Amino acid sequence: MTTVITYGTFDLFHIGHLRLLQRLRGLGDRLVVGVSTDEFNAIKGKKTVVPYAHRADIVAAIREVDAVFPEQRWEQKRDDIVRERADIFAMGDDWVGRFDDLSDLCKVVYLPRTRDVSTTEIRQMVNALHLDRVAELQRAVQHLQDLVARL
What we know:
CATH architecture of the largest domain: 3-Layer(aba) Sandwich
Radius of gyration: 21 Å
Number of domains: 2
Mean pLDDT: 87
Organism: Rubrivivax albus
Distance between the termini: 79 Å
Pfam families: CTP_transf_like
Keywords: Nucleotidyltransferase, Transferase
CATH superfamily of the largest domain: HUPs
Protein name: Glycerol-3-phosphate cytidylyltransferase
Strand order of the largest sheet: 3-2-1-4-5
Helix content: 40-55%
Structural class: alpha/beta
Oligomer: single chain
GO molecular function: nucleotidyltransferase activity
Largest sheet: 5 strands, parallel
Order of helices and strands: EHEHHEHEEH
Strand content: 15-25%
CATH class of the largest domain: Alpha Beta
């Protein structure tokens, strides 16, 4: 049995996350996933929209995922690989080279990310929509103020 281990925040779960998990599972018979806790994300300078417990539940519900555990610090990966008896450590290719030091414990693989989708892009789109809505509301308020002033 080949075990694959990976990590991620998985905030605003999207098709890119799903496809990555599917491709990761395709590398082996068992996929275990470390989901970054809110506290660890704060250390990394990330602020999540969805709380850890919900993100972990979402990832655990994916049929390709066999187990989920909390990622609480950078240094835990070696212990996790040994505990899970991982044969392959795999991440998206935005991390190329970052975890090569783990190759003494298992094979390290970097897979291409799904094109044209990312949590950052989704967050930027939501922010842009929010700003558009705020501007629209400001115009409406100004229009109402103008009407009231004319009365």
